[in-house]
Design brief:
Elements lengths: L2 H6 L4 E5 L5 H10 L3 E5 L3 H8 L10 H9 L3 E4 L10 E4 L5 E2 L2 E2 L2 H13 L5 E4 L7 H10 L11 E4 L18 E5 L2 H12 L5 E3 L3 H32 L3 H8 L23 H11 L5 H11 L1 H15 L8 E5 L14 H11 L3 E5 L5 E4 L2 E4 L5 H6 L2 E4 L8 H7 L3 E3 L12 E3 L1
Parallel strand pairs: 1-2, 1-4, 2-3, 4-7, 7-8, 9-10, 11-12, 11-15, 15-16, 16-17
Antiparallel strand pairs: 5-6, 8-9, 13-14
């Protein structure tokens, strides 16, 4: 039976490489579609937890994970040899920055792993966000080291992940999936596979086009967030509310889409992906001017927040040094426990370096590591609020009762407009 037919019949064996925020939801979706799914991760502890039905990500519950494992539809493994015989390989590994340069080591390791286990006729898909050209210029030679040739002996393409952790409206199924293969057959196989998992598949002409589409999506957000952050600084200097300005501008029914300021940028995409694009442009001898300027603006926001904290304390006749500061929410976005690239961590580190007595509360985070030190979460109670010289609202989790927090706090700096509409003279906004 040809792979196309086996995919249509959900008779293909699928291997997901990397079981984090991207890979695990994809693995469960493939299992629910009827495929036999192997999930590979290099962390033996993570694999053991997955086999026990303990999910490490927000978008997959323990119950649905346990159900897939118990019925045999999803099998987590840390053994490379278990991947032998797989028909479809999907790479969902991290692509972090190391010293502001793309770290391709995880993709390289995944490529070597697949090259050793891949059989002729298999489909390999890269989902990890990366620079344009990665699939064909970097991954393809690794996969071909075993003698099989892409576009003939096996199939290859790129499909950017579009996972938004904790988003209750848009998940894997109802977000269109972009696919671009090295040839028409690769693209068609990708379209068939993802067509079993999502409502709509969008085909493009090449892996590089698909890679660039992902970077454009996040660079668009990156630049507009930077604009909102710079406008917040300007509005503060002018003595007007950036939030009121955005609300007013948003009444225009065309030509404007609201973006909002905050204490910085965070997560697995926005702080990282534009840097991949900038790096690629530099390799070609150019400069991505807009991207670089936006990165500079967004990166300075934690320092600006610390300055605003300092100013707010000064207005109360207190110095930053030795002040008791409570940060509320250290996750990079509301209602998740993800602290990757969270600006709260830099704010916390800067405050501690300045001599402040800093603690944090987050309903989804048990501890954070700052400058090599593990800092445990603090209980949010009357004492924590009353004893703090200033409470800083970093992440507006829906679990917080902001009116109660305002009523019980001496002073609040609101960086996310979480306390919008709450009355009280003790609230200072970004």
């Amino acid at each position: 039976m040809e792979l196309t037919e086996r995919i249509h019949e959900a008779d293909a064996r699928v291997a997901i490489i990397g079981l984090g925020y991207v890979g695990l939801p994809l693995a469960l979706a493939a299992a629910d579609a009827g495929f036999e799914v192997l999930g590979f991760d290099t962390s033996a502890d993570r694999v053991a937890a997955l086999r026990d039905g303990t999910s490490p990500v927000t978008d997959v519950s323990d119950d649905e994970l346990r159900a897939a494992v118990e019925r045999g539809a999803f099998r987590p493994t840390a053994l490379p040899e278990d991947l032998q015989g797989s028909d479809v390989f999907v790479i969902c590994v991290p692509t972090p920055l190391r010293d502001e340069l793309p770290d391709m080591s995880y993709i390289e390791s995944a490529g070597n792993l697949i090259a050793e286990q891949m059989k002729p006729g298999a489909l390999v898909v890269l989902e990890s966000t990366t620079y344009p050209g990665t699939t064909e210029e970097f991954l393809r030679p690794i996969l071909e080291k075993g003698g099989l040739i892409a576009g003939g002996d096996f199939h290859l393409g790129f499909s950017p992940e579009r996972i938004d952790p904790g988003n209750p409206e848009y998940g894997l199924k109802n977000v269109p999936k972009i696919v671009g293969g090295v040839d028409e057959t690769s693209t068609a196989l990708m379209e068939a596979f993802y067509g079993k998992l999502v409502d709509r598949v969008v085909t493009v002409s090449s892996p590089m086009t698909a890679e660039m589409a992902k970077l454009l999506e996040n660079t668009y957000r990156h630049i507009n967030i930077a604009l909102a952050n710079e406008m917040a600084i300007v509005c503060h200097d002018l003595g007007i509310s950036i939030w009121e300005v955005i609300d007013a501008a948003s009444t225009k029914p065309f030509g404007f889409h609201p973006f909002y300021p905050g204490p910085g940028w965070g997560g697995h995409c926005i702080p990282v992906d534009p840097a991949y694009l900038s790096w690629r442009v530099r390799q070609m001898g150019g400069t991505a001017h807009f991207v670089e300027l936006a990165r500079e603006i967004n990166a300075r926001m934690p320092a600006y927040v610390v300055q605003r904290i300092t100013d707010a304390l000064n207005d109360e006749g207190k110095s930053l040094k030795a002040s008791r500061i409570l940060l509320l929410g250290v996750a990079y976005k509301p209602d998740v426990g993800d602290v990757r690239e969270s600006p709260a961590l830099e704010i916390l580190a800067r405050l501690r370096k300045a001599g402040a007595n800093v603690s944090f509360h987050d309903p989804y985070v048990e501890e954070v590591r700052v400058a090599g030190e593990v800092i445990p979460v603090r209980t949010l109670d009357s004492a924590a609020l009353r004893e703090s010289d200033i409470v800083v609202a970093i992440t507006n989790h829906s679990t917080y009762d902001w009116q109660d927090i305002s009523d019980r706090s001496r002073l609040v700096l609101d960086t996310r407009n979480a306390l919008a509409g709450i009355t009280g003279g003790n609230v200072v906004t970004l």
